[in-house]
Design brief:
about 600 residues, Immunoglobulin-like, five-stranded mixed β-sheet, mainly beta, Ferric Hydroxamate Uptake Protein, Chain A, domain 1
Length: about 600
């Protein structure tokens, strides 16, 4: 386990936040400063805009500087929402942006009705402008497991919907796509190559999809060249004035916000100091303080690996309080302003729909052996650049409780009596502290798998056989107004600290955090693979949401499936100087 502990004070001025994480533009100086930050827009490369239950909508998120048209490095978080024709958010996702690029996927559940939906992509910074600043794409969802869902289910597609999809390069020969031939047998390698034909002019960030041409003839998703036609209508900077409120961009990382509720008074609790813990492979603990509405905010630069957020009141009792998610993204966009397409399926498409549904069910039955994987993050310096003393307990004689372990194994930690109770004593670093400090008692900060535990007796009684290692820092630090003498970090074997959390009455809330990037499963075939015996009804043969093209060419392994028919390769992206690129090439499997 790579240990990452961050002790940080609040990095945003909570007093300036209004409702929904907004700030007030107080004067001309504030306004000028904000106008120097370029406005953004977004383009999303979608693998498809016609979806069935059990399928994934994959997307590659391009955040674009609206003044230079290059990828933006302003916002660090993007938002993607699927909206139904009533303006309700059906699916909602946050993703991390790295130098303007992000990725994600939305699983389509069987509970959704057939109909026309809208997919929108945006950042908090974009939400300050009108709805045209956002990315929007029409989505047709076909659910064969539900009936009578279209108002006119027998109506065929309109003439507009029958627009033929082009099969031409729109990149002025800057980038090219090459495959071995134009016709392939099932389960064969395409020998797919993306070529940079213009050196530095073709270098850029791209995404690629290899997928069966949709038999339901719906207009193709907007490509980046088509999307660039709206650039002239976009805001290049904020169109606000003094006295207006403004949603600030997430430049420092992901903005997390919750409201502290006093259960006894049934109202928000203002001016309370908190220790906010996010356990996981990138442990973080931060100081926060609630504002007058009982709300606290915190930025997280690194991806959040925890499913939950854990909060301890630093100077008060936790037991009479609860947490409420502020849901900052829910009210950013007025979805009632969206307009929806009127694409409809015909009864003549029933056989196509039935076959696709059967293929999806078979594929999902075998999906357990074809899982995506998380992309590992770069390691960061643990303990905020300090090097802890470490004790791997299996290297010593084992003791039953952590109290015995501290006394017998952990050097510079002892147990003393204070007001009739056992307390944990850390001998401070003598190189940095005077004798007066050494004899003064201050409690250490104790973390178990990244979660702050206030009650020392809970720690002393904890079963030491569950602890893998103890890490120790002996310098002073503080969280808000509370000072600590050193820090003790307990790493358990299975990261299961639920008994401690229950005993501590720690405030726990479900976190709607940005998802981590994934490396999507890519089916490969060889003479020795066991997959040769399993059915393969993939219609999405390959999906790569993010790759950088620098050199002459990049080769990709991509195999056809048992599905026959016409397939298409779609490459979208932007060069390093902001030129949109779109390529489409077709081939046949027979």
């Amino acid at each position: 386990m790579t240990l990452r502990i961050y002790i940080a004070s609040a990095i945003i001025c909570l007093s300036v936040f209004k409702a929904n994480g907004q700030v007030l533009i107080n004067n001309a100086e504030d306004l000028r400063s904000l106008e120097l930050t370029p406005m953004e827009t977004a383009y999303l490369h979608l693998n498809s805009n016609v979806l069935f239950p059990g399928e994934y909508l994959y997307y590659s998120f391009y955040c674009i500087d609206a003044s230079t048209y290059k990828l933006s490095n302003i916002s660090k978080v993007g938002y993607v929402q699927l909206i139904n024709s009533s303006g309700e958010t059906i699916l909602n996702q946050k993703i991390r942006l790295n130098k303007g690029k992000g990725q994600g996927e939305l699983f389509i559940p069987s509970s959704l009705n057939s109909g026309n939906y809208k997919l929108i992509g945006f950042t908090r910074w974009m939400s300050n402008e009108n709805i045209d600043q956002l990315f929007q794409s029409d989505i047709l969802l076909v659910n064969p497991y539900r009936t009578n869902q279209f108002s006119d289910a027998n109506t065929t597609l309109s003439e507009e919907s029958m627009t033929e999809k082009p099969n031409a390069s729109l990149s002025d020969s800057i980038v090219g796509i090459s495959i071995g031939k134009n016709s392939f047998s099932p389960r064969s390698n395409l020998q797919l190559t993306v070529q940079n034909l213009k050196g530095t002019l073709g270098a850029g960030s791209y995404s690629i999809s290899v997928r069966k041409v949709d038999d339901l003839n719906i207009p193709a998703p907007t490509n980046p060249i088509q999307y660039s036609n709206k650039y002239a209508k976009l805001s290049k900077k904020i169109s606000k004035k003094i006295g207006d409120t403004l949603v600030i961009p997430e430049q420092k990382g992901e903005l997390v916000s919750y409201q502290l509720i006093d259960n006894q008074r049934q109202q928000p609790k203002p001016n309370v100091e908190l220790a906010v813990s996010l356990p996981g492979k990138r442990n973080e603990i931060k100081y926060a303080k609630t504002d007058q509405s009982g709300t606290f905010y915190s930025y997280y630069k690194s991806p959040i690996a925890s499913d939950n957020i854990y909060v301890q009141l630093i100077t008060e009792d936790n037991s009479t309080h609860t947490l409420k998610n502020s849901k900052l993204s829910d009210r950013l966009i007025n979805t009632k302003l969206l307009t929806f397409a009127n694409h409809k399926v015909s009864t003549t498409d029933s056989i196509l729909i039935k076959n696709r549904s059967i293929h999806n069910q078979i594929q999902n039955a075998y999906r357990i052996n074809k899982k995506d994987t998380l992309v590992s993050s770069e390691p960061e310096n643990p303990f905020s650049s300090d090097i802890p003393e470490s004790f791997v307990l299996d290297e010593y004689k084992r003791f039953k409780t952590m109290k015995e372990t501290f006394v017998e194994i952990v050097v510079n930690v002892s147990i003393k009596k204070r007001d009739g109770k056992d307390v944990i004593w850390i001998d401070e670093n003598t190189l940095s502290n005077s004798r007066r400090y050494k004899i003064e008692y201050l409690a250490p900060l104790v973390l178990v798998d990244g979660i702050y535990i206030k009650d020392q007796q809970t720690i002393l009684d904890f079963d030491a056989t569950k602890v893998k290692a103890v890490y120790l820092l002996r310098d002073r630090f503080s969280l808000g107004s509370k000072a600590f003498k050193g820090m003790i970090y307990l790493e358990t074997f299975d990261q299961q600290n639920q008994p401690l959390i229950t005993n501590e009455t720690i405030l726990v809330a479900k976190g709607n955090f940005a998802q981590e990037d994934r490396r999507y499963f890519n089916q490969l075939y060889s003479d020795n693979t066991e997959d040769n015996r399993a059915p393969d009804f993939r219609t999405q043969l390959y999906w790569n949401p993010n790759f950088n093209l620098k050199d002459d060419e990049i080769n990709f392994d991509c195999y056809t499936s048992d599905v026959k028919g016409d397939f298409e390769i779609i490459l979208n992206g932007y060069t390093s100087y902001g030129k949109p690129i779109h390529l489409r090439k077709t081939f046949r499997v027979e």
